[in-house]
Specification:
By secondary structure, the protein is α+β, with helices and mostly antiparallel strands. It contains 5 helices and 3 strands, in the order E-E-E-H-H-H-H-H. It has a domain of 96 residues.
Length: 142
């Protein structure tokens, strides 16, 4: 699987584009739209310089989780290793994860880089569990 960020052929939808290599060619599987900056824009412009309430971080976390839950069935071919699909899910949802990280960084007085790294590590573990649950290889806790 190959994931490419940007515009396909310099036109169309901005996003994370997923391809599978089949019979010597890359076959487009799915595109997950993102904003034009992929979450890398100036965070101070996007969120302002005021303190962000816990509710905003909670909403950003829920948006990240919703993205991951949506991405798993779209990306899982049930053939590739679950770890590869989990990595693709994190890449597809990186915009939402970066927004969450930016909000968390302010709340916890950490750097955005550090919180982004922590958020992506946690997201990978969650995505791996989601893939295994989707495949029926792990039971859902009740």
């Amino acid at each position: 699987m190959l994931v490419v960020a940007g515009l396909r052929n310099e036109q169309g939808t901005m996003g994370a584009h997923f391809y599978n290599f089949q019979s010597g060619e890359f076959v487009h599987l799915q595109t997950i739209e993102t904003d034009e900056h992929f979450g890398n824009g100036d965070q101070s412009e996007e969120y302002g310089s005021t303190l962000i309430a816990n509710d905003s971080a909670d909403l950003a976390l829920q948006n990240s989780r919703d993205c991951m839950l949506t991405a798993v069935p779209l990306l899982d071919d049930k053939v590739s290793p679950a770890s590869d699909i989990a990595k693709a899910v994190v890449i597809a949802c990186s915009d939402q994860l970066k927004k969450y990280a930016a909000l968390s960084a302010r709340q916890h007085r950490l750097t955005v880089l550090r919180t982004t790294k922590l958020a992506k590590e946690a997201a990978y573990e969650s995505a791996l569990v989601m893939v295994l649950q989707y495949r029926g290889e792990r039971k859902i806790r009740q």
